[in-house]
Design brief:
single chain, alpha+beta, 3-stranded antiparallel β-sheet, 8 strands, 28% helix, membrane, Guanylate cyclase, transmembrane, guanylate cyclase activity
Amino acid sequence: MNKTDEANQTAAVLDGHQIWSAMRRLSFDGIGTVVSGSNTGLVQMDDLADRAPQFAAFFIAPNREKVLKMVQMTTYRIPNCDGTINRTGCYDLKLTDVMTGFWPSENGAMPPDEPVCGFRGQRCSYTVEIAVGATVLALIMLILLLWLLRRHCQTRALNKMPWRLFSDDFRLIDEEAARSLLSIGSSNTKLSNQSIGGSKKHAILGVNTHATYRRFIQKQPLKFNREDMVLLTAVKDAIHDNINPFLGMAFNDKEEM
């Protein structure tokens, strides 16, 4: 309309074909605001009096708030083109890279051409890491070795069977022999009237240790596992004034019964 008025063609404002022809291939600056201080840029009309589009490609990273403009798409007029004939706007898009060296990292920078430590790690020293790893490995091996040594010493101590009594270590006596020893008043045996009599069976362990025992029939060779030996050793070591001490156990470890 303004272009038609500038030509002093008052009657042309009523002629749609003339206005449409004046709009073809028209270019003007977009309207801006004082507050924003910006405008819509250059407005170009194509050969069919439609606005030629302007596009841009942006990259939106999921871990960043800033939007990166990658490509600017501007329109340019195709020479020797008539829109009324081919029914096109006679415009095409020109792509211009705004950002070069783009990489989808946090800062958008491309990775270096060569790693910081080199392709073979020749630029970095791993002495500290190797020393720490070797120290930790040595500590683990030392702890394992100490545990195995402690286990071996415990096994050796258990295999000695401190609670086992051999046939030469004790002498079984009946009630008559026990009473005769009491009547003699032997100072070499620790017998008392309370311990003589009843259903208890008596034995002399060592030189002068009086003990009572229980006798069982052994039908097969006895095999003690680790748990059994740990239990018997703990019972052997249990000493208190209010309990009778466990002196030991005698058994036949051979095949003949």
